[in-house]
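Troubleshooting: if your tokenizer reports a length mismatch, compare against these two reference records.
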Amino acid sequence: MPAQPLPNPEAVGALVALLERERPAEAEARARELLETRPSAGILWKILSVALMRQGKDALSALHRAAELMPGDAEAHANLGAALHDRGHWFEALESLQRALALDPNAEQALIDAANALKALGRAREAVPLYERAIARAPRAAEAHNNLGNAELELGHTAQAETSYRRALDLEPRSADILCNLGNALRIQGRFEEAIATTRRALAADPSSSVAHNNLGLCLAGLGRRAEAAASYRQAVALNPAYLEALNNLAAVLPELGARGEAQALLARAIQLDPARAESHCNLGSLLFEFRRVDEAAASYRRALALEPRNVAALAGLGAALRMQGLAAEAEASCRAALEIDPRSVSALSLLGELRADRGQFAEADELFRRTIDLDPGFPFAYYSIAANRRMTAADAAWLAGTDALLARNLPLRHEISLRYARGKYFDDLKQYEEAFASYRQANELVKRYGVEYDRRGLARRVDRVIERFDADAMRRPRAAGHDSERPVFIVGMPRSGTSLTEQILASHPQIYGAGELPFWQTAFAAYEAAELAGRMDTGLIAGMAQRYLERLTALSSRAARVVDKMPLNFMSVGLILAAFPRARIIHLQRHPIDTCLSIYFHYFSHLHPYANDLDNLAHYYREYLRLMNHWRTVVPPANLLEVPYEALTADQEVWTRRLLDFVGLPWDARCLDFHATDRVVITLSKWQVRQKMHGASSGRFKNYEKFLGPLRELDPIFAQESG
């Protein structure tokens, strides 16, 4: 094909003149006419692309053609790179911009755009020298100073980032974006008041900046002003309903304001807007885990990891969920995967300590918790774990100082709660009971801020319904739908009544497997009630429950003759359990009521036990529990129910251990007397206590707190009479 003539300089000059006179539509039309006869003239494609861009039209194809036909023209490659940059096509943009810079190493905007592309690709360290080169060529380029600050901030160089932002601000004092970025750098350095003032300046410059509202929320949350933070996040979302970071931030603060349901809905919305954002799935997992919806939490963490396999927060979160599911080996594997990626992950290291403590390896656990604090002296859960997993002494003064230093900050609610409980444990161990009770009371009052209310009437009605459904006649009827397996053994009672100790004794027998607390029967009872209300009751429902439960037990242990489920709350489901398993054994642990309730008050039961944070509610719950257990005593056959007094068990271990084994139908085994040495995983709050030799030191503990007992006194008529 013969070579095509180039357009004459006059024609090119006329096109450039049209652009200079802001007449891009005419320039476009004339360039297209010339291209009909000169389709390989790169300069015409270049002019056409500029004319299209100035009209807001799609110029990408013209830009590509210009760069292809003018391989030695730096501006053509820079223009293509800039267009790809604006579309977020970072790989392609970087390639074109690097070609432009190879031809013209000092092209300022190409340097900035190439640096932006590198930063967007996660290569902030490589971006810094390009920004610096751009600044050397154009010291008054505010964009270069600002973007250099962004790269420095991403690298953790907050002081350098602040310097860059201030230089940019000197050049553009009213730039909302630069003010917002400077405020962010100040916040990360913990200079919250300065950060708030700077961010408010950004909002004065641009009240519609959703980013500034979000950043103001972060500053306010850092000062513990969570209601104000929520208001700022809401404003950010109102301005930009698809602002994923603001949705996640609002969801993080709402549970502390008693709005857990809204928080979950916001995270679901964030996931719907962008299902590929791992952070939203991870945050949902953390929220679900916080409220002990462990299976759902694990599923959310897995979804985050499917999107981002190296997400350390999701790996640590999944490890925590797997631990609560009783999958210790899998939990440790997830934990170690997190530490391989980030050896300084305090969440993973602290979790590894908990896994060691679950196995009774308390010295190793303590060392891991201390390593965690060495890495991050501001990580509250490590302080909590140290106190929870051993007896504190006067030698732990440094621990107390660290705890008090953290409590002087504006901590997230869950962290302050855990530290208040830990502080109470410290003073209780040191027999400083007034200080201990003050800390426990603060912890319990803080838990109430989650807004999970205890429904006294609701519980009383529920107990009424259970007694009515499973009355003497119902319990005497033949249970044709039930399974005749003797494998299930249940330990029921109030929390902190000795259920973990009893499970540990039984699980020391070679034919018994301790399954911990299985939540199966709470869900099963809800399904039973729903079927009854809908008139869909049939023998298949209970038979199906029995089969599913046995499958769960087999998954935990296929060989054990007995599997112990020590969920205390199963006292509500005794009737349904015996309908499903007529030969099941139910062991009821009883402990002095005031010791029991006080021990509950002294431990963090998350939000599953809303009665636990108020002494009046504790007394009410205990009475309802006692009312139902009194009913079971009258209707459950002696072959199915064994009452075990905690105080008698600790006073005469062998006698009661023999009774327990006789009751579950297994021969005597002396290893049950050395239960504290049994190698097994225990993840309940009693995991430290069950590793100690039998003692009765916990009996009568309430006498140390006589002046604080209030409504609990009425639970013990003898104590009430003596103190009245």
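Reference record two:
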Amino acid sequence: MTPLYLGWEYATPHQDPGPPPPRPVVPEPYRMSAGWLAAQRREESLLGRVPKIVVASTTSLALALVVCVVGGLVAAIVAAPAIAACLAAAVPSGRAIWRGERELRTRIDAEGLRVGRLRGDQESRLIAWQAEHARRAGRWRAQRFAFERQKRWYAVRVPDGIDRVDIAGGTLAGWSAVLMMTAAHRLAAGGEVTVIDLSGGAVAADLVELAAAARVAPAVWVLPRDLPRLDLAASLAPGELADVLALSVSVAQERSSARDLAIDTAILDRLIGVLDGAGTKRAKGTEAAEGAAERAESAEGGVIQIGRVAAALRALAQVGDTRGDVAAGLLSEREAGAIGALFGQGATDRVVLERAIGMEAQLRKLAGVGSEPVRLPRGRLRVVAVDKRASALSATLLGSFVITALTHLIGQAPASGGQGKGGGASWQHTVVLLGAERLRDDVLDRLTDACESARCGLVLAYRSIPPQVRQRIGRGNAALAFMRLGNAEEAKAASEQIGSEHRFVLSQLTETIGTSVTDTVGGSYTSTVGDSASTAVSTSDNESSSSGSGRTSESASLTAGIAASTAWGVSTSRATGDSESLARSMQRSREVVVEPAELQRLPLTAMIVSYASATGRQVLLADANPAIGSLPLATLTPKSEDIGHV
């Protein structure tokens, strides 16, 4: 099962190795010193000077005597002893000269051997240096290759065992990026996404346009205009419908007790029990009454319309004229009479009347739910949004009704197959609730419990984090993501929850996109269920005719369309248009420390993600910009797996 992706983590696991290692300097080879040799010869010449003088003088004298003998100047018998004496005096000196020359040659030969050994050692060290340089150069080339070819953006995905993602803070543009990132990849993998947008900012508008271009056929309900075509309550049992309505109308009270909720549920349960649910017989009289009766008769058997429940509350509380509701086909004479006899008179009657009046005032706004149901094919993207023009109370009421009814529907569905390891959600069907801070905590608790039981992935996004929200974010098997927080008190609470010891490196691209994309998203939604059922059916036929290979084209269109046809793709392409811009955008911008001031000036798409793992709590900085995936330096492989592979 393909995991849910939250964003991209900027990292450079392989650092720049710097310049290549220098080549070893080849030293001058060892040679016998000419100076040393000359010095040895000078020394030997000085030491042999006296013997050489003796030899020269005695030899010269002997030669002179020989010449005199030959010339007859001196008698041979007289010269012979002198010649012998000269030769005898020259022999020791000659021997000393010979010994000195021999010692000089010995020293020279010894020096030659020493120089030869030094040269051999030098050559051996040079070979070792060259081998070491070759190893270092090879390692440098590998590091340089890894540095140049490494990815800079790694996908941040929801780990196994996580049931829910809580997003605290953020802007509408930041939420749009997160939704595009999570939902587009989820749809491209063949999953389903249900978006409940209570923000009033049309956060999912870009996603809807992208999905429509990729032939995913999104279904969009804009409330309250599309309430008649929203049939969430059609498959609810009478008891479930009573529970949904009681919890929905309780939002008008700041804090209703369990007793009040139980009373409301009991009253609604009994009223719904009186209504036959099979459609009211046509009332005689006006043409409008006949049309209302026809619509009631055309409803499927067993379906209790909320408009009829509101009429029953008016009959119980004796508000207005019951005959008008009977004439409109909302009640029959039998049902009106039975409602009047449901509760006795006395003190209890006052409690019932007060609760009935309060509930009717709220259910009047939901009276049109499911009155004009439209048969739609089961699409993989469904968006239910509250119009930004709706009042705060109406938006809360509509959101509570949709979420409470959806909770019951999720509880009826079997658990998703292919669940994550460790019992986490499979994320095959992902529910995204935007503006969850508008709902009461008990409504959210029911939704989270139902999604956990059904193995359905849940993403809750809170614009603000009041005390009741702080108690719930990150609770259980949930990943927590903090985006830009405008309130200083909330930023302080978030920094304490994350931990001030964490420091992160922010990419220049995150800063650039944060300033180039304004904090606005699509102005409004365009309903896709308001025209006719035939439009939806024809879309279904086109979708079914493109099954098989069409699913592959949907995936390709969704992923490619992010970069080609969204504001995120245009801004990212502009920031990384050429190699120089790409390199500049990949540079480190600044360091982010976890402190309130930093959390208040985070870029629009930056988020600090925290979740529990087997090795402890993991905290990282991610960028939710969905267009980063189109960059050549991005990969869907998480950083830990990519580094381990390398």
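Descriptive notes for reference record two:
- Residues 277-301, 532-552 have pLDDT under 50 and may be disordered.
- The chain has three domains: 5-149, 155-231+373-643, 234-372.
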